[in-house]
Amino acid sequence: MKKYFLKWLPPLLMCLIALWYLGQALMFLGQLSAPADTDFAFNKFGQLPLVFNGRLKPMDSLARNSLLQLREKQTLNLEPWKDWYQNPKIISANEWLANVLLNPTVADTWPVFRVDNQDLIAFLKLPEKNEAQHQDGKHYSWNQIMPMLPAFDTENERIETNGASASRNAYENAVIKVHERMELYAQLKATVQPPGMTNWPADLLAYEKLIPAGIVAARAQQAGEKYDQNTFDEFLTDLQQFDFMEQLAPPLIVPPDDSQKDWQRTGSVLLAAARGEKIPAAVEDYAAMSGAFQKDDVAGFNSALADYRSSLVPHFSRTLARARAEVFFNQMQFFYNAMVIYVLAGLLAIFSWFNLSETLRRCAVWLIALAFFIHTTGLIYRIVLQGRPPVTNLYSSAIFIGWGACVLGLILEKFYKNGIGAVVSAGMGFITLIIAQNLALDGDTMEMMRAVLDTNFWLATHVVVVTLGYASTFVAGFLALIYIVRGVFTKTLDAATGKSLARMVYGIVCFATLFSFVGTVLGGIWADQSWGRFWGWDPKENGALIIVLWNALILHLRWGGMIRERGLIVCAIGGNIVTSWSWFGVNMLGIGLHSYGFTDAAFKWLVLFVVSQLAFIVLGSLPVKMWKSFNARSV
Questions:
Q1: DSSP structure string for 165-216
Q2: 206-242, pLDDT tens digit by residue?
Q3: Is the pTM here over 0.85, yes or no?
Q4: What is the largest CA-CA distance in the chain?
């Protein structure tokens, strides 16, 4: 009976976790399709399409990406001073965005801005941590920061004009970051209605009635003729408010009509109305939503929302379907859930080393297979949503590198069945998805890289192949880390395991050399077609070349007998440093044609990673007698 149970435990465990995940999917599908007669239809609101930063997306994506930038979470905690077990009030991203767009008076009181720097907290005269006063010392509202906004603007301007980002200290970086968050919030507030207006439906109706008389007064004023001063002043005040909305460059929520081919901002169409153009029905629908929402009128809000959605059919049926698909993608959180399962699987694989349990190893492999399936599903779903190959920016490169590393780890586990491949798959999957999760804090993860590489052919050839080269080089380095950790700190690295690890590293380095070389050559061909030169010593090009040369050097040293088992391991860890620089470091330089990523935000993490790899190189170079697993044999 026990033998039978152990045989079926791994697939049973996988099925249980798969059922849990499937339950989430069914729950989200129900939320997206269920009517909301007794509550505000925030899920339907989240499916409304708009354009922001050049990309058509649903409100749900705008809400999640904005919250990630403002407070580094996809939900809003209205009571951040409470611990999780005290049941703080958590609201969804869509509910938060609905309040920002339609009822900003309430949203302005919510602690959405994360401020970590104590010097900046003191400069803005914000309250420090005090649970009795419901303040956690990290999250603040728009209303709390607003009194110091003029001084804050001046401080931000001083910092931006006084030096490059590389020379800024922690306080100055915090000023820049929080100021950018304030600008984003101001953009969102100006999406539907002018800031400060508390009854937008009535104000919009008054403006529509004022337009004919306002145009007459404005023309008379320009011609030097007699005009109604009160009408002119009221009309001018409205136009100034709409122009202020337009200058903030908020999201574009007004869909195109027969006379317009592009999405427009509310401010621009209201200014156009002053020239005699008709105000689109979408503006009135959003105004109706705003009025009902501020009055807490559920039926009125849902009715106005349904009216607007109906107006998008049939001309924007595909747009609505795409928005629903992206909302489902956001709700499912494929990569986050895969990351959680990778962690569990990795722990089981590591534990299998110490008690040599075949059941634990098999459980780990089955869970990795599930995580890999979810990871792959998310990757394919994202490809279909974008209509692009898997790598389009730094975020997607992290997702794809983790996927490729997981494939290589599973192949290794298939051949060796010793848990090492499982740890590689789980470890690399977890690490790369953590990196991707942090990259998501910089904004919309589905925005494209530079337009010069905005072609499916080169994204599917050069970028994908060279990224697989990155992934395989990292896998070789990760295997080397396992070798050193098990060899120096444990007694689990026997001679057979050490040799198998060395063979794995060697095989993966061969694979990495091929893909990094082919990817670099393809990049040169693309550069010749796009820029008229095969090679230009661009920092990104140099980084790719260094990876090729480093992998080729490892193979040369191994073939020439200049390094043996431990030498191969140490050199493979050096590949981690080289690849991390080519993948991230060159983007931090802020120069070159390939500098499409972030600049200095992750510099400290890159430095810490390099230092850690140097430390492992030192450990790998220690005398054999200092290795727990090598006391009785030489290398």
A1: GGG--HHHHHHHHHHHHHHHHHHHHTTTS-TT-S-HHHHHHHHHHHHHHHHH
A2: 999 999 999 999 889 888 888 889 999 999 999 999 9
A3: yes
A4: 105
